[in-house]
Amino acid sequence: MRVKLCALLAAATALGLAAPPVVAQQPVVLKVAIVQQIDSLNPFLAVFQSSTEIGRLMYDYLTAYSADDQTVTEGLANRWEASADKLTWTFTVPEGKKWSDGQPITARDVAFTYNLMLTDVVARTANGSFVTNFDTVTATDDRTVVIRTKTPQVTMLALDVPIVPRHVWEKVGSVKDYANDRMPVVGSGPFVLTEHVPGQFIKLTANKGYWRGAPKYDELHFVYFQNSDAAVQALGKGEVDLVNRMAPAQFDSLEGKAGVARNKAQGRRFTELLINPGAQTRTGEPIGDGNPALRDVRVRRAIAQAIDLDALVARVSLGYAEKGAGLVPPVFSKWHWQPGPGEQRRFDPAAANAALDAAGHPRGADGTRFTLRLAGRAGRAYDEQAAEYLKRSMGDIGVPLDVRLVSDNQLNEATTAAAYDLAFSGWATNVDPDFVLSLHTCAQRPGADGKGGTTDAYFCDATYDELYARQLSEFDEGKRQELVRQMQARFHDQVPAVVLAYDNALEAYRSDHFTRFTTQPAQGGVIMAQNGVWGYYGAEPAGQAAPAPRGWGGLAAFGAAIAAVVMAFVIYARRRRATAGERE
Question: Which of 9, 316, 331, 464 yields a CA-CA distance of 20 to 30 A from 249?
Fold first, then answer.
Protein backbone atom coordinates (compact mmCIF):
# COMPACT_ATOMS: atom_id res chain seq x y z
CA MET A 1 0.00 0.00 0.00
CA ARG A 2 2.90 2.36 0.79
CA VAL A 3 4.27 1.83 -2.72
CA LYS A 4 0.93 2.73 -4.26
CA LEU A 5 0.65 5.97 -2.20
CA CYS A 6 4.16 7.00 -3.22
CA ALA A 7 3.29 6.40 -6.82
CA LEU A 8 0.20 8.62 -6.54
CA LEU A 9 2.19 11.42 -4.89
CA ALA A 10 4.84 11.14 -7.57
CA ALA A 11 2.14 11.52 -10.17
CA ALA A 12 0.90 14.70 -8.54
CA THR A 13 4.40 16.12 -8.56
CA ALA A 14 4.86 15.16 -12.22
CA LEU A 15 1.74 17.18 -13.04
CA GLY A 16 3.50 20.30 -11.76
CA LEU A 17 1.47 20.46 -8.56
CA ALA A 18 4.38 20.68 -6.18
CA ALA A 19 4.03 23.24 -3.33
CA PRO A 20 4.99 26.78 -4.39
CA PRO A 21 7.75 28.64 -2.56
CA VAL A 22 6.70 30.26 0.75
CA VAL A 23 5.83 33.94 0.29
CA ALA A 24 7.10 36.25 3.06
CA GLN A 25 4.25 37.95 4.91
CA GLN A 26 4.25 41.72 4.51
CA PRO A 27 4.34 43.73 7.76
CA VAL A 28 1.17 45.47 8.88
CA VAL A 29 1.95 49.19 8.98
CA LEU A 30 0.02 52.10 10.47
CA LYS A 31 0.89 55.26 8.53
CA VAL A 32 0.22 58.56 10.28
CA ALA A 33 0.34 61.95 8.58
CA ILE A 34 2.10 64.78 10.40
CA VAL A 35 2.64 68.37 9.31
CA GLN A 36 4.77 69.55 12.22
CA GLN A 37 8.51 69.04 12.09
CA ILE A 38 10.51 67.33 14.83
CA ASP A 39 12.54 69.70 16.96
CA SER A 40 14.50 66.91 18.69
CA LEU A 41 14.47 63.17 19.34
CA ASN A 42 16.33 63.83 22.58
CA PRO A 43 13.65 63.52 25.31
CA PHE A 44 15.39 66.13 27.48
CA LEU A 45 15.16 68.73 24.70
CA ALA A 46 11.99 67.84 22.75
CA VAL A 47 9.24 70.45 23.06
CA PHE A 48 7.17 70.21 19.86
CA GLN A 49 3.98 68.19 20.19
CA SER A 50 5.12 65.94 17.33
CA SER A 51 8.38 65.21 19.15
CA THR A 52 6.84 64.50 22.53
CA GLU A 53 4.22 62.29 20.86
CA ILE A 54 6.98 60.10 19.45
CA GLY A 55 8.88 60.26 22.73
CA ARG A 56 5.89 58.79 24.59
CA LEU A 57 5.92 55.83 22.20
CA MET A 58 9.62 55.24 22.90
CA TYR A 59 9.86 55.84 26.65
CA ASP A 60 7.43 55.10 29.46
CA TYR A 61 7.01 57.45 32.42
CA LEU A 62 7.12 56.51 36.09
CA THR A 63 3.30 56.52 36.15
CA ALA A 64 0.70 56.74 33.39
CA TYR A 65 -2.86 57.93 32.75
CA SER A 66 -5.53 55.35 31.99
CA ALA A 67 -7.26 55.30 28.62
CA ASP A 68 -10.74 55.13 30.11
CA ASP A 69 -10.79 58.19 32.36
CA GLN A 70 -7.20 59.50 32.58
CA THR A 71 -6.78 58.50 36.22
CA VAL A 72 -3.30 57.55 37.41
CA THR A 73 -2.29 53.99 36.58
CA GLU A 74 0.82 51.83 36.35
CA GLY A 75 3.78 53.09 34.36
CA LEU A 76 7.28 51.81 35.03
CA ALA A 77 6.29 51.85 38.70
CA ASN A 78 3.41 49.69 39.86
CA ARG A 79 3.27 50.82 43.51
CA TRP A 80 3.91 54.06 45.36
CA GLU A 81 3.44 55.57 48.79
CA ALA A 82 4.03 58.92 50.45
CA SER A 83 5.25 59.71 53.94
CA ALA A 84 2.88 61.40 56.37
CA ASP A 85 4.53 64.79 55.77
CA LYS A 86 4.32 64.29 51.97
CA LEU A 87 8.05 64.99 51.63
CA THR A 88 9.19 61.45 50.83
CA TRP A 89 7.78 59.30 48.02
CA THR A 90 8.72 55.66 47.47
CA PHE A 91 8.09 54.02 44.11
CA THR A 92 8.44 50.33 43.26
CA VAL A 93 9.65 49.22 39.82
CA PRO A 94 8.71 45.52 39.51
CA GLU A 95 10.83 42.79 38.01
CA GLY A 96 10.17 41.64 34.46
CA LYS A 97 10.03 44.94 32.60
CA LYS A 98 12.80 45.28 30.03
CA TRP A 99 14.38 47.78 27.71
CA SER A 100 14.02 47.03 24.03
CA ASP A 101 17.58 45.65 23.96
CA GLY A 102 16.67 43.06 26.61
CA GLN A 103 18.32 44.78 29.58
CA PRO A 104 16.14 44.91 32.75
CA ILE A 105 14.45 48.18 33.70
CA THR A 106 15.32 49.07 37.28
CA ALA A 107 14.85 51.81 39.84
CA ARG A 108 18.40 52.88 39.03
CA ASP A 109 17.25 54.00 35.58
CA VAL A 110 14.62 56.21 37.22
CA ALA A 111 17.10 57.72 39.67
CA PHE A 112 19.63 58.28 36.89
CA THR A 113 17.08 60.18 34.76
CA TYR A 114 15.95 62.53 37.52
CA ASN A 115 19.48 63.11 38.84
CA LEU A 116 20.68 63.97 35.35
CA MET A 117 18.01 66.65 35.23
CA LEU A 118 18.98 67.91 38.68
CA THR A 119 22.67 68.23 37.80
CA ASP A 120 22.51 69.37 34.15
CA VAL A 121 20.62 72.57 33.37
CA VAL A 122 20.29 71.56 29.70
CA ALA A 123 18.61 68.29 30.69
CA ARG A 124 15.93 70.42 32.35
CA THR A 125 15.03 72.16 29.08
CA ALA A 126 11.84 70.26 28.25
CA ASN A 127 10.52 69.08 31.61
CA GLY A 128 12.60 70.77 34.27
CA SER A 129 9.64 72.11 36.24
CA PHE A 130 8.80 68.59 37.40
CA VAL A 131 12.08 68.20 39.33
CA THR A 132 12.79 71.77 40.48
CA ASN A 133 11.39 70.97 43.93
CA PHE A 134 13.29 67.66 44.27
CA ASP A 135 15.87 67.49 47.05
CA THR A 136 17.30 63.99 46.51
CA VAL A 137 16.54 60.96 44.34
CA THR A 138 17.98 57.62 45.45
CA ALA A 139 17.65 54.05 44.18
CA THR A 140 17.96 52.01 47.38
CA ASP A 141 17.99 48.83 45.30
CA ASP A 142 16.99 47.68 41.80
CA ARG A 143 13.31 47.75 42.69
CA THR A 144 12.96 50.88 44.85
CA VAL A 145 13.46 54.58 44.15
CA VAL A 146 12.98 57.17 46.89
CA ILE A 147 12.34 60.82 46.04
CA ARG A 148 12.57 63.47 48.73
CA THR A 149 11.18 66.93 47.95
CA LYS A 150 12.04 70.30 49.47
CA THR A 151 8.36 71.08 50.11
CA PRO A 152 5.27 68.91 49.63
CA GLN A 153 4.62 68.41 45.89
CA VAL A 154 1.12 67.48 44.76
CA THR A 155 2.24 66.40 41.27
CA MET A 156 4.31 63.37 42.31
CA LEU A 157 1.97 61.00 40.46
CA ALA A 158 1.98 63.25 37.39
CA LEU A 159 5.69 63.41 36.57
CA ASP A 160 5.50 63.46 32.78
CA VAL A 161 9.19 62.79 32.29
CA PRO A 162 10.48 60.07 29.90
CA ILE A 163 12.68 57.64 31.84
CA VAL A 164 15.84 56.81 29.88
CA PRO A 165 18.10 53.72 30.06
CA ARG A 166 21.07 54.42 32.29
CA HIS A 167 23.31 51.95 30.43
CA VAL A 168 22.89 54.04 27.27
CA TRP A 169 22.73 57.60 28.58
CA GLU A 170 25.56 57.37 31.12
CA LYS A 171 27.88 57.19 28.07
CA VAL A 172 26.48 60.43 26.59
CA GLY A 173 29.00 63.22 26.92
CA SER A 174 26.80 66.26 26.24
CA VAL A 175 23.03 66.23 26.53
CA LYS A 176 22.87 69.43 24.47
CA ASP A 177 24.66 67.83 21.53
CA TYR A 178 23.18 64.32 21.69
CA ALA A 179 20.71 63.69 18.84
CA ASN A 180 19.53 60.30 20.17
CA ASP A 181 19.51 58.85 16.67
CA ARG A 182 21.64 55.72 16.99
CA MET A 183 19.23 53.19 15.53
CA PRO A 184 17.51 51.24 16.88
CA VAL A 185 17.06 53.60 19.80
CA VAL A 186 16.80 51.70 23.08
CA GLY A 187 13.52 52.44 24.84
CA SER A 188 10.85 51.01 27.12
CA GLY A 189 7.67 51.95 25.24
CA PRO A 190 5.46 49.97 22.86
CA PHE A 191 7.49 51.03 19.81
CA VAL A 192 11.19 51.27 18.94
CA LEU A 193 12.58 54.05 16.75
CA THR A 194 14.41 52.48 13.81
CA GLU A 195 14.72 55.17 11.14
CA HIS A 196 14.34 58.94 10.75
CA VAL A 197 14.82 60.95 7.58
CA PRO A 198 14.19 64.60 8.52
CA GLY A 199 11.42 66.16 6.52
CA GLN A 200 10.32 62.79 5.11
CA PHE A 201 9.40 60.11 7.64
CA ILE A 202 9.94 58.49 11.02
CA LYS A 203 9.73 54.70 11.33
CA LEU A 204 9.13 52.72 14.49
CA THR A 205 8.70 48.97 14.93
CA ALA A 206 6.55 47.19 17.47
CA ASN A 207 8.36 46.33 20.69
CA LYS A 208 7.57 42.62 20.87
CA GLY A 209 8.82 42.48 24.45
CA TYR A 210 6.74 45.40 25.72
CA TRP A 211 5.60 44.72 29.27
CA ARG A 212 1.93 45.49 28.53
CA GLY A 213 2.05 43.15 25.54
CA ALA A 214 3.07 43.78 21.94
CA PRO A 215 0.97 46.06 19.68
CA LYS A 216 -1.34 44.30 17.21
CA TYR A 217 0.59 45.45 14.14
CA ASP A 218 4.23 45.51 13.08
CA GLU A 219 5.32 49.04 12.21
CA LEU A 220 4.29 52.64 12.86
CA HIS A 221 5.32 55.27 10.30
CA PHE A 222 4.94 59.03 10.67
CA VAL A 223 4.96 60.62 7.23
CA TYR A 224 5.68 64.33 6.74
CA PHE A 225 3.43 66.58 4.64
CA GLN A 226 3.91 70.25 3.86
CA ASN A 227 0.38 71.10 4.94
CA SER A 228 -2.85 69.54 6.09
CA ASP A 229 -4.39 69.77 2.60
CA ALA A 230 -1.80 67.33 1.28
CA ALA A 231 -2.25 65.08 4.32
CA VAL A 232 -6.03 64.90 3.86
CA GLN A 233 -5.62 64.13 0.16
CA ALA A 234 -3.26 61.28 1.04
CA LEU A 235 -5.82 59.91 3.49
CA GLY A 236 -8.49 59.98 0.80
CA LYS A 237 -6.22 57.98 -1.52
CA GLY A 238 -5.42 55.45 1.19
CA GLU A 239 -1.74 56.45 1.26
CA VAL A 240 -1.91 57.16 4.99
CA ASP A 241 -4.22 55.76 7.65
CA LEU A 242 -4.59 58.50 10.26
CA VAL A 243 -4.69 62.31 10.24
CA ASN A 244 -5.40 64.90 12.91
CA ARG A 245 -5.45 68.69 13.43
CA MET A 246 -7.35 69.22 10.20
CA ALA A 247 -8.89 72.53 9.24
CA PRO A 248 -12.68 72.58 9.69
CA ALA A 249 -13.36 72.61 5.93
CA GLN A 250 -11.08 69.60 5.46
CA PHE A 251 -12.86 67.70 8.22
CA ASP A 252 -16.26 68.49 6.68
CA SER A 253 -15.07 67.33 3.25
CA LEU A 254 -14.55 63.79 4.57
CA GLU A 255 -18.13 63.33 5.74
CA GLY A 256 -19.61 60.22 4.15
CA LYS A 257 -16.41 59.30 2.31
CA ALA A 258 -16.15 55.53 1.76
CA GLY A 259 -13.51 53.84 3.89
CA VAL A 260 -12.99 56.88 6.12
CA ALA A 261 -14.21 57.41 9.68
CA ARG A 262 -14.08 60.79 11.44
CA ASN A 263 -13.59 61.64 15.11
CA LYS A 264 -14.43 65.01 16.65
CA ALA A 265 -13.46 65.44 20.28
CA GLN A 266 -13.08 68.17 22.86
CA GLY A 267 -9.37 68.76 22.60
CA ARG A 268 -6.75 69.44 25.27
CA ARG A 269 -5.00 72.14 23.22
CA PHE A 270 -5.35 75.88 23.15
CA THR A 271 -4.30 78.34 20.46
CA GLU A 272 -2.84 81.63 21.63
CA LEU A 273 -1.44 84.92 20.40
CA LEU A 274 1.86 85.69 22.14
CA ILE A 275 2.50 89.38 22.92
CA ASN A 276 6.17 90.02 23.73
CA PRO A 277 6.07 91.66 27.18
CA GLY A 278 9.70 92.75 27.14
CA ALA A 279 11.51 89.42 27.25
CA GLN A 280 14.29 88.85 29.76
CA THR A 281 16.52 85.93 30.75
CA ARG A 282 16.09 84.34 34.16
CA THR A 283 18.75 86.74 35.47
CA GLY A 284 16.86 89.78 34.20
CA GLU A 285 18.90 90.58 31.10
CA PRO A 286 16.92 91.79 28.06
CA ILE A 287 16.63 89.26 25.24
CA GLY A 288 15.15 89.52 21.77
CA ASP A 289 13.85 92.49 19.82
CA GLY A 290 10.23 92.91 20.81
CA ASN A 291 8.61 96.30 20.22
CA PRO A 292 9.17 98.39 23.40
CA ALA A 293 5.55 99.59 23.32
CA LEU A 294 4.43 96.08 24.31
CA ARG A 295 6.16 96.32 27.69
CA ASP A 296 3.24 98.48 28.81
CA VAL A 297 0.39 96.29 30.05
CA ARG A 298 -2.08 98.96 28.92
CA VAL A 299 -0.95 98.43 25.33
CA ARG A 300 -1.22 94.65 25.63
CA ARG A 301 -4.72 94.96 27.08
CA ALA A 302 -5.76 97.27 24.24
CA ILE A 303 -4.54 94.76 21.65
CA ALA A 304 -6.51 92.00 23.38
CA GLN A 305 -9.62 94.18 23.54
CA ALA A 306 -9.47 94.74 19.78
CA ILE A 307 -9.76 91.00 19.02
CA ASP A 308 -13.24 89.54 18.57
CA LEU A 309 -12.78 85.99 19.87
CA ASP A 310 -16.33 84.97 18.99
CA ALA A 311 -15.76 86.00 15.38
CA LEU A 312 -12.51 83.99 15.24
CA VAL A 313 -14.29 80.87 16.46
CA ALA A 314 -17.14 81.35 13.99
CA ARG A 315 -15.20 82.45 10.89
CA VAL A 316 -11.83 80.76 11.20
CA SER A 317 -12.64 77.65 13.28
CA LEU A 318 -16.16 77.36 11.74
CA GLY A 319 -17.52 76.53 15.18
CA TYR A 320 -15.06 73.65 15.77
CA ALA A 321 -13.58 75.39 18.82
CA GLU A 322 -14.56 77.09 22.04
CA LYS A 323 -13.82 80.73 22.87
CA GLY A 324 -10.53 81.16 24.72
CA ALA A 325 -10.09 82.42 28.27
CA GLY A 326 -7.69 80.72 30.71
CA LEU A 327 -4.69 78.44 30.21
CA VAL A 328 -6.53 75.18 30.96
CA PRO A 329 -9.07 74.01 28.34
CA PRO A 330 -12.63 73.18 29.41
CA VAL A 331 -12.02 69.46 28.79
CA PHE A 332 -10.33 69.58 32.21
CA SER A 333 -13.34 71.23 33.81
CA LYS A 334 -12.18 71.25 37.42
CA TRP A 335 -9.12 73.35 36.52
CA HIS A 336 -10.70 75.49 33.80
CA TRP A 337 -11.21 79.21 34.43
CA GLN A 338 -13.70 81.59 32.87
CA PRO A 339 -13.66 85.32 33.69
CA GLY A 340 -16.27 86.37 36.21
CA PRO A 341 -17.91 89.75 36.75
CA GLY A 342 -15.27 92.45 36.55
CA GLU A 343 -12.78 90.11 34.85
CA GLN A 344 -14.33 89.88 31.42
CA ARG A 345 -12.62 91.61 28.51
CA ARG A 346 -15.25 92.70 26.01
CA PHE A 347 -14.48 93.20 22.33
CA ASP A 348 -14.45 96.99 22.10
CA PRO A 349 -12.30 98.69 19.41
CA ALA A 350 -13.34 102.14 20.57
CA ALA A 351 -12.14 101.44 24.11
CA ALA A 352 -8.93 99.94 22.71
CA ASN A 353 -8.27 103.10 20.68
CA ALA A 354 -8.86 105.26 23.73
CA ALA A 355 -6.51 103.10 25.82
CA LEU A 356 -3.71 103.45 23.26
CA ASP A 357 -4.18 107.22 23.20
CA ALA A 358 -3.97 107.29 27.00
CA ALA A 359 -0.83 105.14 26.93
CA GLY A 360 0.95 107.78 24.85
CA HIS A 361 0.58 106.30 21.37
CA PRO A 362 -1.55 108.74 19.33
CA ARG A 363 -2.18 108.16 15.66
CA GLY A 364 0.21 109.84 13.26
CA ALA A 365 -0.63 111.72 10.10
CA ASP A 366 -1.06 108.41 8.25
CA GLY A 367 -3.49 107.18 10.89
CA THR A 368 -1.13 104.63 12.40
CA ARG A 369 0.52 104.40 15.82
CA PHE A 370 3.27 101.78 15.44
CA THR A 371 3.81 98.62 13.41
CA LEU A 372 4.02 95.12 14.86
CA ARG A 373 5.37 91.90 13.38
CA LEU A 374 3.11 88.85 13.51
CA ALA A 375 4.81 85.45 13.19
CA GLY A 376 3.02 82.21 12.37
CA ARG A 377 3.44 78.84 10.74
CA ALA A 378 3.36 78.62 6.95
CA GLY A 379 0.97 75.95 5.69
CA ARG A 380 -1.21 75.96 8.79
CA ALA A 381 -4.70 77.03 7.77
CA TYR A 382 -5.52 78.63 11.12
CA ASP A 383 -2.45 80.89 11.11
CA GLU A 384 -3.04 81.95 7.52
CA GLN A 385 -6.72 82.79 8.02
CA ALA A 386 -6.45 84.26 11.51
CA ALA A 387 -3.55 86.47 10.39
CA GLU A 388 -5.79 88.13 7.80
CA TYR A 389 -8.49 88.68 10.41
CA LEU A 390 -5.98 90.19 12.87
CA LYS A 391 -4.59 92.51 10.20
CA ARG A 392 -8.05 94.04 9.87
CA SER A 393 -8.63 94.15 13.64
CA MET A 394 -5.29 95.76 14.42
CA GLY A 395 -5.74 98.16 11.51
CA ASP A 396 -8.91 99.39 13.22
CA ILE A 397 -6.82 100.59 16.18
CA GLY A 398 -4.00 102.04 14.07
CA VAL A 399 -1.53 99.18 14.43
CA PRO A 400 -0.47 97.75 11.03
CA LEU A 401 0.79 94.15 11.06
CA ASP A 402 3.76 92.77 9.16
CA VAL A 403 2.77 89.11 8.81
CA ARG A 404 5.60 86.59 8.53
CA LEU A 405 4.64 82.93 8.08
CA VAL A 406 7.61 80.59 8.39
CA SER A 407 8.46 76.93 9.05
CA ASP A 408 7.96 75.20 12.42
CA ASN A 409 11.64 75.36 13.27
CA GLN A 410 11.98 78.99 12.20
CA LEU A 411 8.94 79.94 14.28
CA ASN A 412 10.33 78.04 17.27
CA GLU A 413 13.71 79.76 16.90
CA ALA A 414 12.07 83.18 16.73
CA THR A 415 9.86 82.69 19.79
CA THR A 416 12.66 81.03 21.78
CA ALA A 417 14.94 83.99 21.05
CA ALA A 418 12.07 86.46 21.73
CA ALA A 419 12.54 87.81 18.20
CA TYR A 420 8.84 88.61 17.74
CA ASP A 421 6.18 91.16 18.61
CA LEU A 422 3.12 88.93 18.14
CA ALA A 423 3.19 85.21 17.35
CA PHE A 424 0.74 82.36 17.04
CA SER A 425 1.47 79.52 19.42
CA GLY A 426 -0.33 76.85 21.40
CA TRP A 427 0.12 74.06 23.89
CA ALA A 428 -1.43 70.74 24.80
CA THR A 429 -2.41 70.60 28.46
CA ASN A 430 -1.70 67.60 30.67
CA VAL A 431 -4.23 65.98 33.00
CA ASP A 432 -2.64 67.86 35.88
CA PRO A 433 -2.37 71.59 35.06
CA ASP A 434 1.03 72.07 36.73
CA PHE A 435 3.15 71.83 33.57
CA VAL A 436 1.29 74.40 31.50
CA LEU A 437 1.15 76.72 34.52
CA SER A 438 4.90 76.31 35.08
CA LEU A 439 5.65 77.61 31.59
CA HIS A 440 4.85 81.12 32.83
CA THR A 441 7.03 81.20 35.93
CA CYS A 442 10.14 83.36 36.12
CA ALA A 443 12.35 80.27 36.56
CA GLN A 444 11.32 78.89 33.15
CA ARG A 445 12.95 81.74 31.27
CA PRO A 446 16.22 80.73 29.57
CA GLY A 447 19.75 81.57 30.57
CA ALA A 448 21.88 84.21 28.90
CA ASP A 449 22.61 81.84 26.02
CA GLY A 450 18.90 81.32 25.39
CA LYS A 451 19.11 77.69 26.61
CA GLY A 452 17.95 75.71 29.60
CA GLY A 453 14.36 76.90 29.94
CA THR A 454 11.01 76.39 28.28
CA THR A 455 9.01 79.57 28.72
CA ASP A 456 5.88 80.09 26.71
CA ALA A 457 5.53 83.88 26.70
CA TYR A 458 8.49 85.25 28.69
CA PHE A 459 6.05 86.08 31.47
CA CYS A 460 7.59 86.84 34.88
CA ASP A 461 5.32 88.07 37.64
CA ALA A 462 5.85 87.86 41.42
CA THR A 463 2.13 87.44 42.15
CA TYR A 464 1.81 84.59 39.65
CA ASP A 465 4.95 82.86 40.98
CA GLU A 466 3.69 83.04 44.56
CA LEU A 467 0.39 81.45 43.55
CA TYR A 468 2.26 78.78 41.58
CA ALA A 469 4.33 77.78 44.59
CA ARG A 470 1.23 77.55 46.77
CA GLN A 471 -0.73 75.35 44.34
CA LEU A 472 2.24 72.99 43.97
CA SER A 473 2.13 72.18 47.69
CA GLU A 474 -1.65 72.19 48.14
CA PHE A 475 -3.11 68.69 48.59
CA ASP A 476 -6.65 69.89 49.28
CA GLU A 477 -8.08 69.73 45.76
CA GLY A 478 -10.73 72.38 46.32
CA LYS A 479 -8.19 74.87 47.63
CA ARG A 480 -5.80 74.02 44.82
CA GLN A 481 -8.50 74.59 42.21
CA GLU A 482 -9.04 78.09 43.57
CA LEU A 483 -5.31 78.86 43.41
CA VAL A 484 -5.08 77.56 39.82
CA ARG A 485 -8.00 79.76 38.80
CA GLN A 486 -6.39 82.79 40.45
CA MET A 487 -3.23 82.12 38.44
CA GLN A 488 -5.17 82.04 35.19
CA ALA A 489 -6.98 85.25 36.12
CA ARG A 490 -3.63 86.94 36.78
CA PHE A 491 -2.26 85.75 33.44
CA HIS A 492 -5.39 87.01 31.69
CA ASP A 493 -5.05 90.42 33.37
CA GLN A 494 -1.35 90.88 32.53
CA VAL A 495 -1.77 89.70 28.91
CA PRO A 496 1.59 88.19 27.93
CA ALA A 497 -0.63 86.23 25.53
CA VAL A 498 -4.27 86.02 24.50
CA VAL A 499 -5.81 82.54 24.58
CA LEU A 500 -7.76 82.69 21.33
CA ALA A 501 -9.55 79.34 21.31
CA TYR A 502 -9.72 75.78 22.57
CA ASP A 503 -9.60 73.75 19.39
CA ASN A 504 -11.69 70.64 18.85
CA ALA A 505 -9.60 67.63 17.88
CA LEU A 506 -10.55 66.90 14.27
CA GLU A 507 -9.29 63.46 13.27
CA ALA A 508 -9.97 60.91 10.55
CA TYR A 509 -8.74 57.41 9.77
CA ARG A 510 -9.03 54.70 7.13
CA SER A 511 -11.63 52.39 8.64
CA ASP A 512 -10.98 49.91 5.84
CA HIS A 513 -7.37 49.59 7.04
CA PHE A 514 -7.83 49.88 10.81
CA THR A 515 -11.16 49.09 12.38
CA ARG A 516 -10.65 50.56 15.83
CA PHE A 517 -8.51 53.03 17.77
CA THR A 518 -8.51 53.46 21.54
CA THR A 519 -9.60 56.97 22.48
CA GLN A 520 -8.66 58.82 25.65
CA PRO A 521 -10.90 59.26 27.52
CA ALA A 522 -13.05 56.36 26.34
CA GLN A 523 -16.14 58.52 25.86
CA GLY A 524 -15.66 61.39 23.41
CA GLY A 525 -11.87 61.24 23.55
CA VAL A 526 -9.03 61.76 21.09
CA ILE A 527 -6.95 59.25 19.11
CA MET A 528 -3.78 61.29 18.65
CA ALA A 529 -2.12 63.81 21.01
CA GLN A 530 -3.23 61.89 24.07
CA ASN A 531 -1.83 61.91 27.58
CA GLY A 532 -0.49 58.47 26.76
CA VAL A 533 0.07 56.00 23.94
CA TRP A 534 -3.29 54.24 23.83
CA GLY A 535 -4.43 55.50 20.41
CA TYR A 536 -1.44 53.99 18.61
CA TYR A 537 -0.91 51.08 20.96
CA GLY A 538 -4.53 49.89 20.77
CA ALA A 539 -5.03 50.26 17.01
CA GLU A 540 -6.64 47.16 15.49
CA PRO A 541 -5.90 46.30 11.83
CA ALA A 542 -8.77 45.30 9.57
CA GLY A 543 -9.04 41.55 9.00
CA GLN A 544 -7.50 40.05 5.85
CA ALA A 545 -10.34 38.67 3.73
CA ALA A 546 -10.67 37.30 0.17
CA PRO A 547 -9.15 37.67 -2.32
CA ALA A 548 -6.22 35.75 -0.90
CA PRO A 549 -2.80 37.37 -0.90
CA ARG A 550 -0.69 36.97 -4.00
CA GLY A 551 0.98 33.54 -4.23
CA TRP A 552 -1.84 31.61 -2.52
CA GLY A 553 -3.44 30.43 -5.79
CA GLY A 554 -0.72 27.85 -6.43
CA LEU A 555 -0.99 26.63 -2.86
CA ALA A 556 -4.74 26.15 -3.27
CA ALA A 557 -4.22 24.14 -6.47
CA PHE A 558 -1.61 22.05 -4.73
CA GLY A 559 -4.02 21.44 -1.86
CA ALA A 560 -6.74 20.33 -4.29
CA ALA A 561 -4.35 17.94 -5.98
CA ILE A 562 -3.26 16.44 -2.67
CA ALA A 563 -6.91 16.06 -1.69
CA ALA A 564 -7.56 14.13 -4.92
CA VAL A 565 -4.55 11.91 -4.30
CA VAL A 566 -5.61 11.26 -0.72
CA MET A 567 -9.15 10.40 -1.86
CA ALA A 568 -7.78 7.98 -4.42
CA PHE A 569 -5.68 6.38 -1.73
CA VAL A 570 -8.69 6.11 0.62
CA ILE A 571 -10.73 4.35 -2.06
CA TYR A 572 -7.84 2.04 -2.80
CA ALA A 573 -7.39 1.26 0.89
CA ARG A 574 -11.09 0.54 1.40
CA ARG A 575 -11.04 -1.96 -1.48
CA ARG A 576 -8.03 -3.69 0.08
CA ARG A 577 -9.81 -3.97 3.45
CA ALA A 578 -13.05 -5.31 1.84
CA THR A 579 -11.21 -8.04 -0.14
CA ALA A 580 -9.26 -9.21 2.86
CA GLY A 581 -12.42 -9.49 5.00
CA GLU A 582 -14.22 -11.60 2.46
CA ARG A 583 -11.26 -14.00 2.23
CA GLU A 584 -11.26 -14.51 6.03
Answer: 331
